[in-house]
Design a protein that fits this description.
About 65% of the residues lie in helices and about 0% in strands. The protein is built from 24 helices and two strands. Strands 1-2 form a two-stranded antiparallel ribbon. Helix 9 packs across helix 21 (about 510-545) and helix 20 runs antiparallel to helix 21 (about 510-545). Residues about 5-55 and about 590-653 have low confidence and may be disordered. It is a multi-pass membrane protein.
């Protein structure tokens, strides 16, 4: 339905394309024959956006367009978060998996979901617009949710208890796993393109809009939290009390409405059009760096191959300043003597720097994986712990999967406080437009995740000791709120920090791919959880006196889940040390411009920045405080007004 609605409205697409852009490109080719030759020979990435000026004239983008995106975020995450919280019980109670198999099935499903965000990101960066990508994968998601509803309702698709780790087989197994695969593809594809689609609505060359980007990500998480709050209360209650199929049906309807709303908002979006494949651009740099590995690097980085300033200005291609990190990749920008510049013979410095940016991001990505392994435990073992605890609050029976509503409630309050109280206060102290940098925000989340796992271990000790007494006593379910609340706050810091970091630091043509690194970290975390569960069981059953693993069987009262939590806490502490090293080594892309001798040019050839002293340390300064922004979604260095050009001309003269 969302895709059909979108296709029906495609006649409006030409309204979102700036006709003057194609005209200027044609004129440039006619007026500068040498430029046409260079365009054919060099690996030039044309901007894949409408020009910023046309955006403002047409009233596109901004928070008005984001309203449709926020609506989808809330509606779609109602079911997604509810399913994350309850599916381990669905696997355990309905599909009759044992404890570890139910946990691993959920973590493998979620790991696959977030891994498949790379597919959606790649398609939206290369072949389709981000909006089209969201709607195609959204249609697949809705279809899979409908199939899940049918499975939950049809008794003949439920296996009988068998006492084994898994009881499904034959046609039931085929339907079950095919459904999970479709659901993972749909969920993953949407999330691979969705955050970048929202961030595209804010022009990074405009000081006001650039400063609004952190606010957008905070609101995006707030809307996700609001939808999740409804999901883990209303939808979970319906699933646990009225039937699983009713809960899945509500999720299906909510997601369908969300994607219809997203399609309806199409006339208001700044639609990114696909460009050159980021994978090909990365592969070109890697291959040429290997091919030229024996060539000496020039002493002056200005001798490396790069497009001209005029070509950059006319085509609105953002040139990235050269950096001294990862110098071996610079060999891809060495043009052999008597060779003509061709895409597979030489890369531009900008193209090499794009690969450097992504490479510098990898240690940051790797050091957040353990935190997401901890998150997986709150969606598996903590939910199963809750089944053995007292679910009553007075006379009200609280379903175990609804416990996350407590941290979600705190997040709903803390996000506005963070945005309107903490950020202005911290901004006065640090001078940074977001109060603290994205990497500092992630670091706070990593510390809180360690505390959450320590608390989870102590809560499990208390729960198990009370249950093993004679007579047994079940402690209140709300003891779990401690670990959930701490981790919820950690997630608020880390998720927003990573989304903003990967989007702002990424090259323009790779922003979907880069933003999906956030979900890739989640994917690896869930897969690592499955590996840890199996590995810990295998090792501990050999070394413990009882010859039983920490997480064996179906009875948590005879297990040592607390030791597993503390193992993750120790691992997370060590991981935080690795993160500190990675974060201190990382150099923000916006700092490169200040350190470089390369100066961006306005279309008339006048430098927009007359000297390096005009810019302070960009890691603590608003990216939009000068006319040129290297993180611009439009990638177009343009003077803000005629007076600005006159001032720079006077400075040069």
């Amino acid at each position: 339905m969302p895709l059909i609605l979108y296709i029906f409205s495609t006649h409006q697409l030409t309204r979102s394309i700036n006709p003057s852009l194609s005209l200027s490109l044609s004129q440039a080719k006619l007026q500068r024959p040498e430029f046409s030759a260079m365009e054919e020979g060099q690996a030039i990435t044309k901007t894949s956006y409408d020009s910023p000026g046309s955006w403002k004239k047409k009233g596109k983008g901004g928070f008005r367009a984001s309203g449709f995106i926020f609506a989808l975020s809330g509606l779609d995450n109602m079911g997604f978060i509810a399913n994350m919280a309850t599916m381990v019980l669905y696997f355990y109670l309905v599909m009759h998996f044992n404890v570890s198999t139910a946990s691993n099935t959920l973590t493998n499903f979620l790991g696959s979901t977030f891994l498949l965000t790379l597919v959606g990101a790649f398609i939206s960066d290369t072949y389709l617009s981000r909006l089209t990508t969201c709607l195609i994968f959204g249609t697949i998601e809705v279809l899979a949710l409908a199939m899940l509803t049918i499975e939950a309702h049809a008794k003949h698709l439920h296996p009988n208890k068998c006492g084994k780790s898994s009881c499904i087989h034959g046609g039931t197994a085929v339907y079950f796993y095919a459904n999970l695969c479709l659901l993972a593809i749909g969920y993953g594809g949407v999330r691979g393109a969705f955050p970048a689609l929202g961030a595209d609505q804010f022009d990074q060359t405009d000081p006001v809009e650039a400063a609004s980007l952190p606010t957008f990500f905070n609101y995006l998480v707030l809307c996700t939290t609001a939808g999740a709050t409804f999901g883990v209360t209303a939808i979970v209650w319906v699933s646990m009390n009225k039937g699983w199929h009713w809960g899945f049906l509500i999720s299906t309807i909510a997601s369908t409405i969300g994607f219809v709303v997203l399609a309806v908002g199409k006339p208001f979006y700044r639609v990114q059009r696909h460009g050159e494949s980021p994978v090909i651009r990365i592969w070109q740099v890697v291959l040429l760096a290997i091919k030229n590995r024996k060539l000496p690097l020039p002493e002056n980085s200005a001798d490396l191959f790069e497009m001209s300033d005029k070509a950059s200005s006319v085509l609105a291609v953002a040139k990235i300043a050269h950096t001294d990190q990862l110098r071996f990749l610079d060999k891809a920008a060495i043009l052999p003597k008597e060779s003509k510049p061709e895409p597979w013979k030489v890369c531009t410095v900008t193209q090499v720097e794009e690969v450097k940016v992504l490479t510098r991001m990898l240690p940051i990505l790797a050091s957040t994986i353990i935190m997401n392994t901890c998150l997986a435990q709150l969606q598996t073992f903590s939910v199963q712990q809750g089944r053995l605890m007292d679910p009553y609050l007075g006379s009200l029976n609280i379903p175990t999967p609804s416990i996350p509503v407590i941290p979600l409630f705190f997040m709903s309050i803390l996000i506005p406080i963070y945005e309107y109280v903490f950020v202005p206060f911290a901004r006065k102290l640090t001078g940074h437009p977001s109060g603290i940098t994205q990497l500092q925000r992630v670091g706070v989340g990593l510390v809180l995740s360690v505390i959450s796992m320590v608390v989870a271990g102590f809560v499990e000790v208390k729960r198990r000791d009370e249950c093993n007494k004679s007579p047994p006593y079940a402690i209140s379910l709300f003891w779990l709120a401690l670990q959930y609340s701490i981790f919820g706050i950690a997630d608020m810091f880390t998720l927003v920090g990573l989304l903003e970091f990967f989007y702002k630091e990424a090259p323009v043509g790779m922003r979907s791919l880069s933003t999906s690194f956030t979900w890739l970290s989640l994917s690896f975390g869930y897969f690592l959880s499955s590996i840890f569960v199996n590995l810990i069981n295998s090792v501990t059953e050999r070394i413990t006196p009882s010859k039983q693993g920490w997480l064996h069987g179906v009875d948590l009262n005879k297990n040592n889940v607390n030791l597993f939590y503390w193992f993750l806490a120790i691992l997370s502490t060590l991981n935080f040390g690795v993160y500190l090293v990675a974060a201190s080594w990382y150099k923000y892309k916006t700092e490169d411009l200040a350190d470089s001798e390369m100066k961006p040019m306005a279309p008339n050839g006048v430098p927009l920045i007359t000297n390096n002293n005009d810019m302070t340390d960009r890691s603590t300064q608003n990216d939009a405080s000068v006319a040129f922004n290297p993180v611009s979604s439009a990638a177009e260095p343009v003077a803000k007004d005629n007076k600005a050009v006159e001032k720079t001309e006077a400075a040069v003269n």
